[in-house]
Design goal:
There is one protein chain. The chain is mainly alpha-helical and 285 residues long. The protein has one domain. Helices cover 76% and strands 0% of the residues. The chain is globular. The termini are far apart.
């Protein structure tokens, strides 16, 4: 049963973004190019985000070590939230500015957001799938000869947690990704509105909302556990869904211009010139 649920978990993480992209394209006919651009913006953001956190986080920990544990947690949560928001929304802004200049409608903004959040979900789903296959293979003694003896207790503990988890914990990753994708859709639309309305405050709002969501997730999971964190993210996803639906508008119709209609040809007036008329014309000059 656990194997089935864990498999369902990572399959949902991988399939849901693709199904979402298919639904948006089916209803809005915006094409898959924007989905690919969204995927690219996420990957590019992580190329800067991951090394930055790797370097800056230890420095921050050293600086705040004298502070209380709760203060340290708050500062680390804010740092992680802001770093994620700045890198990801910055990459999204660059995507709209240079690669998706035509993405200025609700459907196109949704498609780009589906690609960005979808890339994250798919990558995490693949990692979860690898971990699941590894632990299942270990349970059935398929990898025992490949694991160093000093790592066996750690893997055994992971295996016990893996197969003793309650059923609802086995699909927590998939539920989290669904909430996260909804948030990414709202971030994408907010950044797009900065271009549509020519108001940078929309971009700032996307950064703040993204930073708040990530910071709350980090803080709540450390303070109250995974279920409390998911409840908070679900509440923020519900607010984001309301924002998404309020911005919803039909795609503008593309009207093919009418072919040029040649002007009606008019018959050339033919005049018979007589000698008297020629004599009269000389007084017109």
């Amino acid at each position: 049963m656990h194997i089935f649920l864990y498999t369902t978990n990572f399959m949902i993480m991988i399939i849901v973004p693709i199904v979402l992209g298919w639904m948006i394209n089916r209803n809005r006919s915006v094409g898959w190019r924007l989905f690919a651009i969204g995927c690219a913006t996420f990957i590019i953001s992580q190329i800067g985000h991951v090394p930055f956190n790797y370097i800056a986080l230890p420095i921050l920990r050293d600086q705040i070590e004298p502070l209380s544990a709760i203060t340290q947690l708050v500062l680390i949560a804010v740092f992680l939230g802001l770093s994620a928001a700045l890198f990801e929304e910055g990459a999204r802004f660059i995507g709209y500015r240079f690669w998706a200049k035509d993405a200025r409608t609700w459907g196109k903004g949704m498609m780009l957001g589906a690609g960005h959040g979808g890339a994250e979900a798919i990558i995490l789903g693949v990692l979860v799938a690898i971990n699941t296959v590894f632990l299942v293979a270990w349970r059935y003694d398929r990898l025992t000869t490949l694991i160093p003896a000093e790592q066996e207790p750690l893997i055994a503990a992971s295996l016990d947690n893996f197969f003793s988890a309650p059923w609802y914990a086995t699909i927590l990753g998939a539920i989290e990704r669904i909430f996260a994708i909804i948030l990414h859709l709202s971030f994408s639309l907010a950044v797009m509105m900065a271009f549509v309305k020519r108001q940078p405050l929309w971009f700032a709002a996307a950064i703040v909302w993204h930073a708040l969501a990530d910071a709350l997730a980090v803080f709540s999971v450390a303070m109250w556990g995974a279920y409390a964190a998911e409840a908070l993210i679900a509440a923020m996803a519900l607010v984001s869904l309301t924002f998404i639906l309020r911005l919803r508008q039909p795609e503008p119709e593309i009207i093919d211009p009418d072919p040029l209609i040649p002007p009606e040809s008019k018959p050339i007036l033919q005049m018979e010139l007589s000698a008297d008329k020629l004599d009269d014309s000389k007084y017109l000059s």
